[in-house]
Specification:
288 residues, 24 strands, six-stranded parallel beta sheet
Length: 288
């Protein structure tokens, strides 16, 4: 089945059609579908326009099973309570989700959020099962906004559960300043986690950060005299507030050895993290 330009297919009966091709290679195609139709297609093909969109016609749940979404610029759920879910993993690389109330990955599969932008959207919820492992992939262009990652299980004493795969570049930290509020994570505790340097990630020991914001991190920096002591360094910080957590990237773009508030970006926020599984337990992958 093919679509070009703005097309509303929500009133059409579509059965046994696995592929929807987009045929506007310039400004893209904006296709309105029901939630059931959106989940029924396994491939969205011929994507190459600058604004290829999937638009929900009404509230509902679109179950993406082995669905290829690469090349879709926007999934628009502005019509009401809509959910995107998958039982086989979900690749949202480069997709902007607008007003999508829920994103559920109830599976052992991974979720790729590289370059994904969330606008007025709800949380990403993983499968609530500590015996399973899911990987959440993000990069420097991921923009979660207020969206949190729910049911992310931190590395247990003897078993890796969920893994945070940061596909971005960070550097080794030369000097940490005062040590009593920060420590480098021992990322070698799990040999399956590939990390170029163990001093590229800091964890705040403080049990309850004032706020999971760049300003909250800077307040801890100021209180504890943290300096990178080398121009141009960048690193990740894991911080906690009660049972929630967040990962920040600090980047000394001014090359002055001091991290300012404008040089800290929140990469991801996690809801309901087990407070007994914090220090040295966060599982990272592919940090270079």
């Amino acid at each position: 089945l093919g679509a070009a330009g703005a097309v509303d297919l929500s009133t059409n009966a579509i059965t046994n059609v696995p592929t929807l091709n987009f045929f506007n290679a310039t400004t893209g195609s904006q296709v309105t579908l029901t939630a059931a139709q959106m989940g029924a297609f396994t491939t969205y093909g011929n994507l190459g326009g600058s604004n290829d969109q999937l638009i929900f016609s009404a509230a509902g749940t679109a179950t993406m099973t082995d669905t290829t979404l690469n090349g879709i610029e926007v999934i628009d759920g502005s019509v009401g309570a809509v959910t995107v879910q998958s039982t086989t993993g979900l690749d949202l690389t480069g997709v902007t989700l607008t007003s999508v109330e829920n994103i559920n990955v109830d599976t052992t599969g991974n979720i790729n959020l590289s370059g994904t932008t969330f606008i007025n959207s709800g949380d990403v919820t993983l499968k609530n099962d500590t015996t399973l492992s899911q990987t959440v992939i993000v990069n420097d262009t991921t923009s979660l906004g207020t969206t949190r990652i729910v049911n992310f299980d931190i590395l247990s004493k003897d078993n890796t559960t969920d893994i945070f795969d940061y596909d971005g570049t960070i550097t080794e930290i030369a000097t940490l300043g005062t040590q009593d509020a920060f420590e480098t994570l021992d990322l070698s505790k799990n040999t399956a986690i590939m990390v170029a340097t163990e001093t590229a990630v800091l964890e705040m020991k403080k049990a309850d950060l004032g706020s999971l914001t760049p300003a909250g991190v800077i307040a801890e920096f100021s209180a504890n005299g943290l300096e990178t002591d080398a121009a141009g360094e960048s690193f990740l910080i894991v911080a906690y507030k009660g049972v929630d957590a967040a990962i920040f990237k600090a980047d000394d773009t001014n090359s002055n050895g001091v991290i300012a508030e404008g040089e800290i970006t929140k990469i991801a926020e996690f809801s309901n993290v087990d407070p007994e599984s914090k220090l040295d337990k966060f599982a990272f992958e592919d940090i270079v």
